[in-house]
Amino acid sequence: MTQQIRAKLLTGFYDQVSELNGCPETLLNSAGINPEQVEKLEGYLPLGKVTDLVEKAARQLNCADFGLRLAQSQGSAALSSLGAAVLQSLTLGEFLNAAVKQFAAPPYNLRVELEVKGLQTLITFHCLNDLESYIATESPLPLELFREFLLGVSVVALQILCGEKFHLEAVHLKSARPLHGQYEKFFNASVHFAQTSDALILSSSQLAQPTEKCNPVLRPLLKSYIGKVLEHGEASLVYQVEQLVYCLMPLKRCSLQEVANQLGMHKRTLQRRLRDQELVFEDILDRIRRERAEYYLSRKLPPMAQISSMLGYREQSSFNRACDRWFSATPMKVRRRLLNEAAAKAVLETD
Fold first, then answer.
1. Is the backbone peptide bond immediately before 142 cis, with ω within 30 degrees of 0?
2. What are its GO cellular component terms (predicted)?
3. Which of 198, 212, 203, 120 is nearest to 153 (CA)?
4. Tens digit of pLDDT for each residue in 216-255?
5. Does the pTM exceed 0.85?
6. In the CATH scheme, what is the code of domain 216-347?
């Protein structure tokens, strides 16, 4: 099956090419890509065509670091295909595991591996090896440039997700040689060439880094994900409501009125349709908050204030009262109990 990526990963293409005095439409047509699709950033594009496009742009514009420039211009679009992984993940490690599974499924069919090797963790892009089998060219340049672009987009995504605390230890590229002098400035890490695989290397301790779901930069991503949720149709009303709760909680906009607005119906209509299934919106919200609170509190991170914010509470005191109602204890006591239970279980499993 043809490997594909979202057209949104060409965010900034028009601006980058225009700044370099090139014609975006001409380049897109030469790579067999519909300019209108890139202009609207809709749908998916064959990975091979995007690879060809990046190479042609770099060569014709005489810009050897075009791949990294394009990656840098992504912003939140770098996470455009991973709304579900962002919402489901509390830490960088959880996000990476979810993202790897998501990329392996259609329409992407991309092989990316997360491997923990002691103090270091490798994110290896085997999909680039797969590309070599069907990109026919006399020059090795196309894949070298696309390697830089794909790893660059990945780094931008991780920086947005984890904030300033995210950093790499090294970058491995199969490319035999550097094409320009911008690598270490972009990756802020040592870059090694002629390696056996293309990979990002980070400290394994980074996997525990909390994700910044409340980061305003992620709001366009959540809005995009909401749009996908709404495509499931009438038969999945409860599913839609639940997913909208997950999306809107970190934005502190998770009300019956807001969910009804997103679904394009009056709030009384939503109430009635939920009531037909013996459900109440406030109960759905409370259940999801309790489930997520228990999940977050079962880990040493994040701090209480961040948990309160991710659950959509404007005041820490509101979260404290909810915890007392759910668990008859303060959040700190709940966390202590859950961590002790996990430690005791681990001891039993090792005996």
1. no
2. cytosol
3. 198
4. 666 666 666 666 666 655 447 888 898 888 878 877 889 9
5. no
6. 1.10.10.60
